[in-house]
Specification:
The protein is of the alpha/beta class. Helices cover 42% and strands 17% of the residues. The strands form 4 sheets. A 7-stranded parallel β-sheet has the order 3-4-2-5-6-1-7, sandwiched between helices. A 7-stranded parallel β-sheet has the order 10-11-9-12-13-8-14, with helices on both faces. The chain binds adenosine monophosphate (AMP).
Length: 568
């Protein structure tokens, strides 16, 4: 293991790193820093969030800056506001002893005029989300003609969020002979395409291999009936009194409902999703960061770029549709040398998705049983005793009350007193878990479970009625019937029993969907992206049975549909 001194970093930055408490470089820093300092070639680096990647590109970026020159020499593009703010803060800390470095973050949802003024005051580093940067370019408020270094951070996330065209527009405004450094947690086909189109022949820096999971994270899963997921979640929180976690749900409504239910049941939880104003979002994040909140309930989009240290657990209340989302979600824990747990609470029909994740991430998922009442009570009791042992007694403050207290409690024996003190906090758990049933689904015996049988019978009736759905993905996107089925099940949470015939064309497909779930299925695709492209679904007429590529818009505004029939 090398030291920062050995990586060829100047004294001013070394001093800043020392003040930040960075003692040894992380693996990605060890590889990337000397490479980016010593070569003018473009670089593609595979690095998960939490591995120290900001310093890996930030330090070389600052080393190569001319602080006397007041033009935009370095441009960092990142998918979210949070990440922009975080990167800017980090760069400012690394540059604490480098006078003249002016780093300005620009992102949507904040006053654009103030951002323009900050740039015009002489920014030499700009950290931007693609959408807001395009706004600034359109207004003629920023000149990218002097950029020497461009960094694409979390490139896969930017593509997932549909920023591909914006990236093209932005990069075309920068000089051809600049250096481009692309950082990504995963190496999808889209990321490779961006690298191919916008970078000169790039060197690859890998830490741990493509799509490989961060080894600081332990992946676990537990199997319950779907209706028991909430009870299971509470038990995992109760059995781990020091748990500090992010719980992922698929939709905004789900996050809201889950947070409300948890709060009602006495847990410290709040939701973060796209419908919150920036101010509300900041407030929730502030409470979470300061650990006033124990559980942050989030959608994938809302949780992007969140960098909170010491997150002990990421909990998947719903599994995400794509492997990349799973990687990003779990990357919120196991950061900066700490370990963390990524726990999926699933129904038995989703076990195959865990197997797929294992294959793709080349990592093992450990099966974990939902803790029983006795185990939870024991852990809570031990924690309580630990607290009693550790509590600091304010001798001076309490002394004047002690005579009265002792007099009042004189009638109790030592044993009785201990029992009463412990019961004060412990009764809630004893009460809650007195007759707690086992929530685990025994996978081997699932077909013998009468409820499962009932669900199957109910479904058989439902299959009678199907409605054709149009989707703008087809064989040109690499789908065959099996992949399409897997993709639809992943996004919607339905099983293959709710999905009927599939008719694949080059650019689109028709899929028969159980009529009872049709509207809910359309809802699941509301913000869906597939490899950087917006996924559009609609009610299809014709469809698998008729083989006629027509579709009609559904929903409250039929006149506003965005699909161009002529395209197909
Ligand atoms: P990043 O992957 O850049 O988001 O970094 C994750 C966290 O690790 C941040 O809180 C950094 O401040 C911290 N960090 C990065 N590099 C080091 C290092 N060499 N030593 C200690 N902490 C680090």
């Amino acid at each position: 293991m090398s030291s920062f001194e050995q990586l060829g970093i100047r004294a001013e930055i070394l001093l800043a790193l020392q003040e930040l408490g960075f003692e040894t470089p992380t693996p990605v820093q060890e590889k990337a820093i000397p490479h980016l300092l010593g070569s003018d070639r473009d670089v593609v680096a595979l690095a998960q969030t939490g591995t120290g990647k900001t310093a890996a590109f930030g330090i070389p970026l600052l080393e190569r800056l001319d602080p006397q020159e007041r033009t935009v020499q370095a441009l960092v593009l990142a998918p979210t506001r949070e990440l922009c703010v975080q990167i800017t803060k980090d760069l400012e800390r690394f540059a604490a002893h480098l006078p003249g470095v002016r780093c300005v973050p620009v992102y949507g949802g904040a006053n654009i005029r103030e951002q323009i003024r900050a740039i015009q005051r002489g920014a030499n580093v700009v950290v931007a989300t693609p959408g807001r940067l395009i706004d600034l370019i359109d207004r003629g408020a920023i000149d990218l003609g002097r950029v020497r270094t461009a960094v694409l951070d979390e490139a896969d996330e930017m593509l997932n969020m549909g920023f591909q065209e914006d990236l093209t527009t932005i990069l075309e405004r920068t000089p051809e002979d600049k250096r481009t450094w692309l950082f990504s947690a995963t190496m999808s086909g889209e990321v490779r395409r961006i690298a191919k189109n916008y970078m000169r022949e790039a060197d690859e820096i890998g830490v741990g291999g493509t799509g490989k999971a961060n080894t600081a994270i332990e992946h676990r899963y537990t199997v319950v009936m779907m209706r028991d997921r909430y009870l299971a979640l509470k038990r995992f929180v109760d059995v781990e009194p020091d748990l500090f976690g992010i719980v992922f749900c698929r939709t905004k409504q789900d996050t809201q409902e889950l947070a409300e239910n948890l709060t009602r049941d006495g847990y410290n939880a709040d939701a973060i999703h796209g419908d919150l104003s920036q101010q509300q979002r900041d407030r929730v994040m502030e409470r979470y960061r300061s650990k006033t909140l124990q559980l942050l309930i989030a959608t994938d989009v809302a949780a992007r770029g969140i960098d909170v240290s010491n997150v002990s657990h990421v909990i998947h209340f719903d599994l995400p549709g794509e492997v990349e989302s799973y990687t990003h979600r779990s990357g919120r824990t196991g950061r900066a040398g700490k370990t963390g747990v990524s726990l999926s609470i699933i129904g038995s029909k989703d076990v195959f998705k865990i197997r797929n994740l294992e294959r793709q991430l080349k990592t093992h998922f450990t099966y974990t049983r939902v803790p029983g009442g006795a185990e939870i009570c024991e852990r809570q009791l031990l924690t309580l005793i630990g607290k009693i042992k550790e509590v600091e007694v304010d001798e001076e403050g309490i002394s004047r009350f002690m005579d009265a207290v002792e007099l009042d409690l004189a009638g109790f024996t030592r044993e009785e007193l201990i029992k009463r003190v412990v019961s004060l906090e412990f009764n809630r758990f004893l009460e809650q878990y007195r007759d707690a049933r086992d929530l685990n689904v025994d996978l081997a015996r699932k077909d013998h479970n009468p409820r499962e049988r009932r669900e199957k019978t109910e479904f058989t009736r439902a299959t009678g009625e199907m409605r054709p759905m149009f989707i703008n993905l087809g064989t040109a996107d690499g789908f065959d019937k099996g992949r399409m089925l897997g993709y639809l099940c992943g996004i919607t949470g339905l099983t293959n029993q709710h999905i009927g015939k599939i008719l694949l064309k080059d650019m689109y497909s028709f899929v028969d969907i159980d009529a009872k779930h049709f509207d809910e299925v359309l809802g699941h695709f509301r913000n869906a992206n597939y490899k950087g492209r917006k996924v559009r679904v609609d009610e299809g007429t014709g469809g698998p049975r008729g083989d006629r590529p027509q579709h009609k818009p559904v929903g409250a505004h039929p006149g506003k549909h965005r699909y161009q029939k002529a395209r197909y």
